[in-house]
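Kindly draft a polypeptide, keeping tokens residue-aligned:

***
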Amino acid sequence: MTRYSSLSLCFRIRAMVAMVALLGSGWGLACSLRSKQGAPTSSKFQGSIANNQPMPNSGGEAATFSAKGSVNLTGEYFKPQGANGQSCATCHIPEDAWSITPATLQRLFEETDGTHPVFNLIDANNPNMDVSNKDARRGAYSMLLTRGVFRRGGAPRPNAEWELIAVEDPHGFANVNQLVHWRRSMPTINFAVGSATVNWDGGSTVRVDQHAGLVNLATRLITERMQGQPATPEVIADMVDFQSSLVNAQLTVQGVGRLDSDGARGGPEALSAMKKEEGRFNLFDAWASDANPKRAQIARGQEVFNSINVSHRSCNVCHNSVNNGTNINNDLFDILTSSAEARTPDLPLYTFRNKSTGEIRKLTDAGQGNVTGRWEDLGLFKAPTLRGLAARTPYFHNGTAATLEDVVRHYEKHFEFVFTDEERADLVAFLNAL
């Protein structure tokens, strides 16, 4: 054997060892390959994920923790349940805090020329669009690719207190008989310390029973979105049990280190041991006087979040579940993200009229109002968990806030919150550390 062939063999052996180590750590091949179930995957992880496995994002690293010892990626949650090849894991992946981001969707599009199961006509800008080639598919799925939003909606609620009298839709599909609601993929995390409300708009009327809400959601997703036959109770139970086991949060921040060090209680493992109760965030109380200026900034931002603003408003009023940020009373809120004033040109605009009073409201999404039919519920949405924010841009139900600073400025513009430049930067630093 020559010296060069020996070196070649050595390099190949090293490459094989490296690949074995990579796969053993939980990383699989790219999503354009096939999972053990035979369907393309969205995540780079396959098999299982160790608790607290760091996953990079723009703010540092996030992680998932499960009381089961590790995160098993082989259950019903990860298996296609219908005709279109989609599973729960198509749109809820660990790298994106169990949501999915435009960056991930763009990667999936390029790796598969837009044929990954996540790109289905049920979520195209208009289901009648041409998807016969890559360029056509890029146009048809532009809302997914640029905003990470999925097309939801349906017929206006029958016998509602309101009527839909006018529609503007830049994509040419919505009309007075067909609502289109563009929604971000709600992260399937932190249910143990979260509200009973499961969907952005409250979904079915089981707001007081989280488990029933999760069962209802899984059942409907299989028949409606995955285009499958009704699943067995065992399949639904397995999916709900998996979702209920996921605890996700930011693990590290650049220049700060681990968020559960030196008295702080950030990160997913600490969250998994917390109780569902009402109160203030207290994760970073121990860093209030820390010598590291970035740690001290996070602690100041936590205080900004908890405190009554000079405008007599507080973030903690709505996001009042301790160290999680959902609403402890399962309330939904109109934070004007679906208002005509906050509309972006790619969203539809609906004109609703109160049947009794004649009052008019213009919204881009009916919110809970199309679930209950109540006039006062139009534009209401769930306060989601605030943990793992850095991993799942963009924000709000319709992805209209590209950054955490945009989120803060939305409240300044539409609710007259008043922050100094320092307070705004501190608050963003805190939100990034959740």
Summary: The first helix runs from residue 3 to 24. The mean pLDDT is 90.
